[in-house]
Amino acid sequence: MSSGTVGQWVLLSYRMPREPSTPRITVWRKLKRIGVAQLGDGLVALPADARTREHLDWIAEEVLEADGSAMVWLAQPASLGQERQIAQGMADARAAEYDAVLADAEQASALPEPERMRVMRRLRDELRRIHRRDYFPPPQRQAADRAVARLHPEHRATEEETA
Known about the structure:
InterPro entries: ChrB_N. The chain is an alpha+beta fold.
């Protein structure tokens, strides 16, 4: 997000039948996985670029296939303050996810190496998933990345040598 101008956002407005619930749940999980900002019931937003537009176009198709209605919009918030509020909400959601990874990494640091390595691989995968939906990286991102990197035996050996 630039510091002085309001950016373009891609919005998905959708409605789905209550029953069957499986398609509705599937759509919600996909929206959560890509890190949308929930603006209201059936209205989500992402910063506009080719990738986010494509994601929301695909999800709109799924909604239509499930006998729902969906429209994808390109829009700008009316003010920079509104845009910052949306971006801050998205950053706060990612910060909570990074905090969880950081806590898991800190707990894993005391584990024996084989278990620590399993946790490290799982947390690296989790970080990759979070990074893909992290449009406004919070400070917690670097802390979580470093904590997971410290689980690797080579990193631990380097730290012990410099201590």
